[in-house]
Design brief:
Length: 386
């Protein structure tokens, strides 16, 4: 009997893997045309998949899988999947990702990122098709670009439930916006919306929804980024990171399908501005610096203004703190797989936060506050052009 050495078997195994990947790539044009699935082109380590069954099965390189498949990668494992030869997604270690096709719109592919990180390269995405990454609290989308999204929820310690999402773009433009459930309906961008994240800026955001209030913690780690909030008369905040000095701010506002009366903002560090466009025919950008506030004295954005709460600072702080407690409690329950609407502690926090919010944004109280007017048009008073 002919003997085949171990190195020979390894070579044959490597060749089989390469051939499998080539076969998968050859299948991709049909997959793209028929919108039936994706292919696994490379596995570095151990990974598994779940589809219409009760147990995970080993993920296999060079194999096509249908939409609706959930993939999880182990420690130190990466997996490359492809929708076509020039449109690929890499799953980083310890990632759980479901790849689905939208039922109502077959041209929309949704990557449901439960935890971990994905790096996406869309160099030749079909015209008219869409791809977006959805986390439990936000959604990101792009076309013809390269970007990375991560989501961590500290599932090893559900009491933390940080629910932090990071987003950065290597080429092109992406967007990121909140994704909440209001009256059993999923809504997007009602609380938080970063409509244009281009090459350079890096965002880390913790978006928590409560029963009636929402709390966000934003950190711009690189570049400058403008974020819009669902507030009546508009509210846009631009944070600018300096070298080795990220900008960070937190805010609280009503969780609602309609614009909120206002929001409370506390700048933790860095350069943060309220942005507003003015002018009827000739539009100009105006930036009002939001002072780096102490924990005891946040500011308000309401009625198209930045307001100093003055003697109502304790009320503003109480709302910010209680909205945070409500929203983080909600996240802890969701992470633990419990129904937030049945939790008495959460209900009490929600009622307290809403009562504080209603007091704070009443017309009588708002009239007592001083308007912070130290704004500047772009490029003036030392505010650099982007």
């Amino acid at each position: 009997m002919m003997k085949i050495g171990k190195s020979r078997w390894l070579s044959l195994g490597a060749l089989a893997a390469v051939l499998g990947s080539l076969v998968a790539l050859l299948m991709l044009p049909a997959l793209e045309k028929d919108v039936e699935g994706f292919a696994v082109v490379k596995i570095n380590g151990k990974a598994a998949y779940f589809k219409d069954g009760k147990e995970y099965k080993p993920l296999r390189e060079g194999t096509a899988y249908p939409y609706g498949t959930l993939i999880k990668t182990g420690r130190g494992t990466t997996v490359d999947i492809a929708f076509s030869p020039e449109n690929v997604c890499r799953l980083m270690p310890r990632t759980r990702l479901a790849i689905v096709m939208d039922i109502k719109n077959p041209k929309l592919k949704r990557l449901k990122l439960e935890k971990g990180k994905v790096a996406i390269k869309l160099d030749n995405w079909p015209k008219g098709h869409q791809l977006r990454v959805e986390t439990p609290t936000a959604v990101c989308g792009a076309l013809g670009t390269r970007f990375s999204i991560s989501f961590e929820d500290d599932t090893d310690d559900s009491k933390k439930a940080t629910r932090e999402m990071t987003a950065s773009c290597e080429r092109g433009t992406i967007y990121a916006r909140s994704r909440f459930t209001i009256n059993s309906i999923t809504t997007e961008g009602k609380t938080f919306d970063a409509p244009k994240i281009g090459q350079g800026p890096a965002l880390a955001t913790k978006v928590h929804e409560g029963l009636q209030n929402a709390y966000t913690d934003e950190e711009v780690r690189r570049g400058a980024l403008r974020i819009q909030y669902g507030v009546k008369d508009g509210a846009a905040i631009e944070a600018r990171a300096e070298e080795k000095k990220p900008s960070r701010f937190v805010c609280a506002l009503a969780k609602a399908d309609e614009p909120a009366a206002g929001m409370v903002v506390s700048v933790k560090r860095g350069s943060v501005f309220e942005h507003r466009r003015s002018g009827f025919i000739f539009k100009s950008d105006r930036f009002t610096p939001i002072p780096e506030t102490t924990a005891e004295k946040p500011v308000l954005i309401a009625e198209g203004k930045i307001l100093d709460p003055g003697e109502k600072a304790p009320l503003a702080k109480a709302y910010l703190d209680t909205a945070r407690a409500e929203s983080e409690r909600y996240s802890q329950l969701v992470t633990a797989g419990e129904d937030p609407t049945q939790d008495e502690k959460l209900k009490k926090l929600s009622e307290q936060a809403t009562e504080l919010r209603n007091q704070l944004f009443s017309t009588r109280v708002l009239r007592m506050m001083r308007h912070i007017r130290s704004g500047a048009r772009r490029g003036t008073q030392g505010i650099p052009r982007r």
